[in-house]
Structure prediction request, 109 residues.
Amino acid sequence: MRLRQVEPLSSYASRRPRLVALMRVGIGIWLLVAGAILYGSGYWWGVLMAAPAALHFYLAYRLRHSVGVSAGTALCRLGQACGVAAAENAHAGAAAVSPIQRSLRTQGA
Prediction:
């Protein structure tokens, strides 16, 4: 039996990984607090809320580390113009030149 490959991230999660990871951490904290309140009130099944909380923490960790730390690494991972920005910076005579600085240099300011 052959399984289909499934897209691991939704388009929203791949566009905004920090926000989705932060939301998952918030949901995980909420589940832990709600579980602690329930367990403290005598409902033993409140402890079971730790499992979904751990799942949210794990997914936030995986999302954060699978997408990449910065937009530059994400662009290089997609195979888009990794060498172009480095060549432009080397041509400008600086190791790292922002687009604003580059535009100011070309305008003569």
